[in-house]
Design brief:
142 residues; five-stranded antiparallel β-sheet; 4 helices; 7 strands; 24% strand; binds zinc ion
């Protein structure tokens, strides 16, 4: 295999932090997959109610948005967020830090499919809604 995609949350953490800031993130008292979660304004639909946290594999990060028909399709990986919302320096640093290539550099293939709102099943959408509701429910205890 020509490229190996390195998964390492220590490398990804600063990118995650930068986007949390950019999306008006506030730390939640709840966790996502055992790690700190942040309440954010969704960069795809502009609505509050979205969250960012650690993905299930614990080596990368995710954004969840419960809004119906949001262009995020309900969730995005940090990779997709960087591609869509980071500046070009961050995108370059992200790519170069992730892809290990033993051959001359030709640039990576970045055919990230644009997932529209209908891409997720009903069950997946319900899971996103209940997960984000859980993150936001901590607000009522303040
Ligand atoms: Zn959204």
């Amino acid at each position: 295999m020509r490229y190996t995609y390195k998964r390492d949350r220590n490398f990804e953490q600063p990118f995650f932090n930068a986007l949390v800031l950019k999306f008006d993130g506030k730390e939640s008292r709840r966790l996502i997959n055992g790690y700190p979660a942040y309440k954010i304004r969704c960069p795809y639909c502009g609505k509050k109610g979205a969250a960012m946290g650690t993905a299930k594999d614990k080596e990368t990060f995710i954004m969840l948005c419960p809004t119906d028909h949001c262009a995020s399709g309900g969730s995005k990986t940090l990779h997709q967020l960087i591609q869509d919302h980071a500046n070009s320096d961050q995108w370059e640093a992200w790519r170069e830090g992730h892809w290990v290539d033993n051959y001359p550099w030709f640039g990576i293939k970045s055919q990230t499919e644009k997932i529209k709102g209908e891409g997720k099943t009903f069950k997946e959408k319900q899971q996103i809604k209940s997960e984000t509701a859980r993150i936001y429910s901590s607000r009522s205890r303040n």
